[in-house]
Amino acid sequence: MLDNVVVCIHNVASPQRLVDVAKVVFSLGDAKVLAASRVTGMAAQTGVPEVMRYAYKLKKSFLVFPTLQDVIDLLKPDEVLLLVPEGFPEAENLESKDIQNKRVLLVISGSDDGFTRADLGLGSAVYLPGVKEFLPSVAFIAISLWILKTGAHP
Question: Which of 34, 58, 74, 96 ranks highest by number of CB atoms within 10 Å?
Answer without folding.
Answer: 34
